[in-house]
Amino acid sequence: MPIFSTGPVHTLPDCWNLKAPLGDFVSKSTRAVDILEWVIKMGKNTWSVLYLIVMIAAIVSVDLLFFRHHLWQRLMVNIGIVLVFIAFYLRFLNKP
Asked: What's the CA gap between 79 and 96, in Å, rounded?
């Protein structure tokens, strides 16, 4: 059965190697709704990874620009930056 048929169950081609979010293989006869939910979860993970990359870039930039030779001050500022990013995430980006 082709993937875009009107039947309730769509068959995926053999060349597709899709993995579910928990690492299990998606069966060949899966519903389009399941694939859509998987894509939505991937979108949320993408934004989380992007947020983490921005946080790491901010920490490295501040380290290199201002606190290159000051170990304890750099450690305190890094902890402060992480706390600010966590507070921002919990206040504005965390959707229940």
From this structure: 26
- Joined tokens for residue 26: 């998606």
C-alpha 85/C-alpha 6 separation (Å) is 46
* pLDDT recorded at residue 22: 44
- The residue assigned the tokens 């965390």 is 94
Cα–Cα distance measured from residue 46 to residue 37, given in angstroms and rounded to the nearest whole number: 14
- The three-class DSSP label of residue 25 is strand
pLDDT averaged per 10 residues in sequence order, the chain, 96 residues: 51 52 51 67 76 94 93 95 94 78
Q: How far apart are CA 75 and CA 72, in angstroms?
A: 5
What does the longest C-alpha to C-alpha distance in the chain come to?
66
> How far apart (Å, rounded) are the C-alpha atoms in residues 41 and 21?
8
Q: How far is 11 from 2, CA to CA, in rounded Å?
A: 6
Asked if 71 and 77 count as a contact pair (C-beta separation under 8 A), the reply is no
